[in-house]
């Protein structure tokens, strides 16, 4: 089986293009290549150049490809739908004009992907990782969110030939086991798959190996994170903390330095026959991006050391 290890701009603290402390995008590409990654995600729309000719040349120069683009936005509000459709259209159009990722023989839905993440509720953000305290969506709002996801997934598939994948994310309205299970039941497999993130599952009280195994049939794409268990326990025991504030406090750490059992996760992926892209993420404050190369290199070397090529 082929498993390609890729990275994402969030490892350099790039989560919001409005943040004045973001590192230059060329630094991210240079350091991802230097650390030995096969490719990258686009990160927030507008961070990497949107000109496919320019970005394609920069990627080829470094031996990289783009594995996915992401909508990280409010998937619930009715007034946001047109904005979401525009984002999906723009991201997918760019993905299809860039150098294609390596082919994954036998994979039903190969990269690149459109990753769909709900985000934007302060109440849910403050309840990240705390299922009992997290307010759930009202029934009408849930149904609308599901329909928005299906609309975006069909747009990506039918207009651009891009596979949409749903990413449960700490601090959004798709985070906990009850929400993920219901979403899987209500979004048809031919419209969207899953992108399970080991770190988000752990942060939100779930066992990554069990979830990867249970949802193998829907799993198109995987994210890896590692979590500092001591910091997470302190955060969850204290006053409510927004997810990215927890990341700025160092709750995410390089692969192999946290609580997740990556040899066991690797065996689970082998058992279920997963192949394709695995994107390593370590969210941080961009003001700490001077240590990003050290950390992304440590993560890549650790994964290589336990059997990931």
Number of helices: 12
Mean of all residue-level pLDDT scores? 97
- Listing every helix as H and every strand as E from the N terminus to the C terminus, the arrangement reads EHEHEHEHHEHEHHEEHHEHEH
CATH C-level: Alpha Beta
Structural domain count: 1
Strand order of the largest sheet: 1-10-7-6-5-4-3-2
Organism: Ideonella livida
Pfam families: AP_endonuc_2
Domain Xylose isomerase-like TIM barrel: 29-303
Protein name: TIM barrel protein
Topology:
Blueprint: E1 3-7, H1 25-34, E2 39-41, H2 52-62, E3 65-73, H3 81-97, E4 113-118, H4 122-126, H5 139-160, E5 163-166, H6 177-186, E6 192-197, H7 198-203, H8 208-214, E7 219-224, E8 226-227, H9 229-237, H10 243-248, E9 252-253, H11 262-272, E10 276-280, H12 292-305
Parallel strand pairs: 1-10, 2-3, 3-4, 4-5, 5-6, 6-7, 7-10
Antiparallel strand pairs: 8-9
Helix pairs in contact: 3-5, 8-11
Descriptive account of the structure:
Strands 1-10-7-6-5-4-3-2 form an eight-stranded parallel beta sheet. By secondary structure, the chain is α/β, with parallel strands linked by helices. It is 41% helix and 16% strand. It has twelve helices and ten strands. 46% of the residues are buried. The mean pLDDT is 97. Helix 8 packs parallel to helix 11. Residues 29-303 form the Xylose isomerase-like TIM barrel domain. This is TIM barrel protein. InterPro entries: IolE/XylAMocC-like, Xyl_isomerase-like_sf, Xyl_isomerase-like_TIM-brl.
